[in-house]
Amino acid sequence: MIPPSLWNQYTTRQIESQVPSPLFSEDARAWCPWYTGGKQIHGGVGMKNGVMFQGFEWHCPEDGSYYREMAERVEELGGSGITAFWLPPAAKGTGVGDVGYGVYDLYDLGEFDQKGTVRTKYGTKAELLELVRRLHGAGIQVYADVVLNHMGGADGTETFLAVKVDSGDRNREIEGHREIEGWTRFDFPGRGGAHSAFRWSHVHFNGVDYDARTGEKAIFRILGEHKGWNWGVSQEHGNYDYLMFADLDHAHPDVQKELFEWSDWFVRETGVDGFRLDAVKHIDHAFMKDFQGHLRARHGQGFYLVGEYWHNDITVKEEYLAGTEFGIDLFDVGLHYHLHQASVKGADYDLRRIFDDTLVKEHPGMAVTFVDNHDSQPGQSLQSWVEPWFKESAYALVLLRKEGYPCVFYGDYYGIGGEQPQDGMKEQVERLLKLRRRYCHGEQEDYFDSPHRIGWVRRGEEGHPHKLAVVVSNREEGPLPMFVGVEEAGKTYVDRLGNHGGRVSIGSEGFGEFPASPGSVSVWMEEGLD
């Protein structure tokens, strides 16, 4: 039996993956081939003012109609300015109602009779491929939601050595080693070896949360030669490798090989343009670095990757960016929480701080900005829903600025279901999308001088000469002086969102006194523009 001390040693591969220090020295920047110095090269590659659309919410119907219904909405989305579509997880889950994050078989996209169904929650493989075809026909890129952290719904149990660990500190063993019976055997009998003959067993996992022999629910680390928690993960709970179900051991060479081969098959089979990578803070960053390198070597440097690293500490995000050689964009969770707090605190929130310590401020070329998503919506484990009164302002802060790659949430566009339904704000979002597409060009100047009223100006550029001035207020109405250019002198500006009925005359020196109604946002532009 290998002593417990061995579990805490880095593998040779992990040691070699460590980043230079100091983290963002000039040497580190040169060492990271994907570091862009703030120049966006991932989000919306080849697209001006690209916008991602998260195409689902947690409570989409379970009747298999999703792919067909979204195929009918492709033209509408493309016309509104959406340039990329984030699909829900396409792989067969633990049952017909699985949202997709309880992944059972990565190779079953709604093609085989497994887990009581051929189709997934969203439809059949043929319907998925037709949706991708229509999106591409409309000039919209497609990003697949990929779950590589865990597997659920195993076909059988196995007996193996394991040790129970403290859920608050997964590095601390709380009892001796013993045999347990875990759900770790994946044979995929319904697929019969199609697409891949690989079979999963306990040697390919490093943790489970249930002992079928005793019925005990706890976190068990699986024991074996050179096996332990992966260390290039979040250090929450001591080590946050384990999240749920049977946890993949990304240091195992067979696991790496199978996931690489699956990714090649999936991209060839579906034709997607990128991956949204689920739960990356629970996956060894050394594996993710190798995985992104493999994908781009096989499918081109433009293959897009964005990771869900749910943490609002910018230093933690920076460590991950460096550890993955700046090859994977990240969702700006810190900005999301700022938007949530601004909506909850109202007039007590200092709007000048809304971009402090956010990814979009520190690394704008690596940030996917968003207001809400399926995890933050009401009733979910990470509920942090931006209050409706502030929602339009939040989307203005995401869609009308120069930095970041914005993502619009299905639930904010079409609405969400479940026990706490919310109406969508499709009309408001479409207005902002139109403004982004037509008028958000050129340099940007911020006016963040008041805790309750902030604004910015987009200057325009060759081919897009019109100016745009945005004001967000969370308390009393009042003018915000902003410079739009001496060439605008004498022009009259109006609020394109219709939230303020006044007019602003631009003075001889190119300044205007731009107001916003209390708790509202206004986008001021020259009167008469379409």
Automatic annotation (TrEMBL):
InterPro entries: A-amylase_thermo (IPR013776), Alpha-amylase_C_pro (IPR015237), Alpha_amylase (IPR006046), GH (IPR017853), GH13_cat_dom (IPR006047), Glyco_hydro_b (IPR013780). Ca(2+) 2 binds at residue 249. Keywords: Calcium, Carbohydrate metabolism, Glycosidase, Hydrolase, Metal-binding. It comes from the Bacteria. The active site is at 278 (nucleophile), 308 (proton donor). GO terms for biological process: carbohydrate metabolic process. One of its GO terms (molecular function) is calcium ion binding. The keyword DNA damage does not apply. SMART domains: Aamy (SM00642). Ca(2+) 1 binds at residues 149, 241, 247, 282. Its cofactor is Ca(2+). The keyword Endoplasmic reticulum does not apply. Residues 50-436 form the Glycosyl hydrolase family 13 catalytic domain. Its EC number is 3.2.1.1. Belongs to the glycosyl hydrolase 13 family. This is Alpha-amylase. The lineage of its organism: Bacteria, Bacillati, Bacillota, Clostridia, Eubacteriales.
